[in-house]
Amino acid sequence: MSQSQLMGIIQRLKTLQEQDDSGDVQSRFFEVNGRRVCQVKYFSGNDTFELEVYDKDNKAQKYPFDNIDMTAIEIFELLQEENER
After folding, report:
1. Chain centroid to CA 34: how far?
2. Tens of pLDDT along 17-65?
């Protein structure tokens, strides 16, 4: 994975923030080779992200973030780990 992929993740997260004018929770999935690795949701009410990380059985663990950069780094690392498998 390259630095440009990290910038792509950040851009997708910024788009979540910008599209949130409906009051609905916005979300995006991140996949590697057709396998869903995680989903991120943006909550405009408290300006936070929730990262759902899927294991091999598609069971999810949720992690809250209040910082776009930390969210992006976590997604980047998850995708990198998946690519190395």
Report:
1. 16
2. 888 566 677 899 999 988 899 999 999 888 899 999 998 887 899 999 9
Whether pLDDT at 71 is above 80: yes
Q: How far apart are CA 58 and CA 51, in angstroms?
A: 14
Ramachandran angles phi, psi of 31, nearest 5°:
-125, 155
Report d(CA 29, CA 44) in Å as an integer: 18
Contact of 48 with 65, CB cutoff 8 Å = yes
Q: Domain 5-84 maps to which CATH number in 3.30.70.3450, 3.30.720.20, 3.40.50.720, 1.10.290.10?
A: 3.30.720.20
Report the pLDDT value the prediction gives residue 72, as an integer from 0 to 100.
96
